[in-house]
Amino acid sequence: MIDPASVKNNRRKFLQYLAASPVLAMSAREALANTAFELQTRPDDPYIWKPYDPNYIVEKPQDALDIFELEAVAHKNIPGAHWGYMSTGADGEVSYRANRQDQNKFVIRSRRLIDVRAADSSREMFGHKYDMPFFLCPVGRLTTYHAEAETGASRAAGRHNIAQGLATNTTIPTEQANKLRDKAGPVMFQLYQQANWEITKLIVQRAERSGCRAMLVTVDGTGNRKLSSLERQRRDDTRLCVTCHAVSKTNPKQTLRNPGGMAMFSEVPAALWEDNGARDAVTAEVSRDTLTWEFIKRLRDITKMEIFIKGIMDVEDALLCVKYGYGIHISNHGGRNEDTGGSTIASLADIAPAVKGRVPIFVDGGFYRGFDIVKALAMGATMVGFGRPYLWGLGAFGEAGVDRVIQIVKAEFNAALRQVGATSLKDLNPRMIHKAL
Ligand SMILES: Cc1cc2nc3c(=O)[nH]c(=O)nc-3n(C[C@H](O)[C@H](O)[C@H](O)COP(=O)(O)O)c2cc1C
Fold first, then answer.
1. Nearest ligand 1 atom, CA 366
2. How much is the average pLDDT of 140-169?
3. Does residue 134 lie in a domain region?
4. 69 and 40 within one domain
5. Pocket lining: 84 vs ligand 1, CB cutoff 6 Å
6. Does residue 57 lie in a domain region?
């Protein structure tokens, strides 16, 4: 690859050499002057005039141009260790970065001369027509980022009629979230398998009773992860977690400041926890390392909710989902659990052609702009999730910030859909996607 900066340097050296020559002195001096002018007025990168400033703080949600401007505000507001937990990836964070960087490896070739005035962005799933083909990913304990937490996120997603995943470790139960979402349809319940089967069964059936029609079973946390960047950021925020969050007999009021995340467990009889060698949901074990396809079958037998396997990265696993009739949720947990460097968009490129539309495919991880979502759908995804971006909105301005994130992505998606020449999601197809040169 030719580096434009070195071309410019060589040209300048050559002109300096000419300027030193008595024969060509006048013309070379002029040329040098011209070059200096050109350098001043025509920079290589137009962003040099107003580059993205990670320290720029918008004062109101409406002032944010894109979701990244909300990240800076959230960074300012959220306590260091909480920020670290949100923003970290696993180990060297190669997967985390790859999710975003690999967006550039796939490009869209737009179609022209198509009347797109009435372009339709809606997506039907689970008997509901959503306004958009994207959703808020399940994220545990949203109180960590703002007091409006799951309540604010559910209201904002409901207002915009978009889908939403609600984590096992949610601070409001599915009944409440579904009510807040109102006409936007119920949440998709995300399941973390509990060590005790009866507890697992209880929360799954509770979600279904409350109206949920889909369950995202997260299967990508089988090892012990190392959240390096969190640990580094903790060095700057040395407060002990227990000073804010511990629930103890001597200080029961501390629960007020507990990040919560136990709402789905409130109906679990104490005896079940004891049976499980735990006091409550906080001290209970999530036993992800024992997850197998047999366990998913066990779930299949106790619920009619549609099951999506969240954490699929490999074609063989995707084909097993097809075989057993489960939806596929391509995800590497936002690069938080494994660090092999594989991006979710690259997995989507392998998986979608093999699946051939036989089961729906969700994908998340680094899809942060309208064009990213258009690209994913053209490659074969049914819906696209985003995690950190709505946490930035939440941390920045609470519910109003989540609302702004959805507004921004909605507007970007609507524009992108028309820009590529699509009149509906059906027009997006793999022929539009090319590997970047
Ligand atoms: C702070 C944080 C907490 C998360 N908690 C959960 C969780 O409880 N359950 C789950 O299935 N995924 C969880 N995820 C993963 C998200 O559902 C999603 O897969 C990921 O955030 C997508 O990547 P993105 O942040 O780049 O959009 C969490 C992600 C973050 C950033």
1. 26
2. 96
3. yes
4. no
5. no
6. no
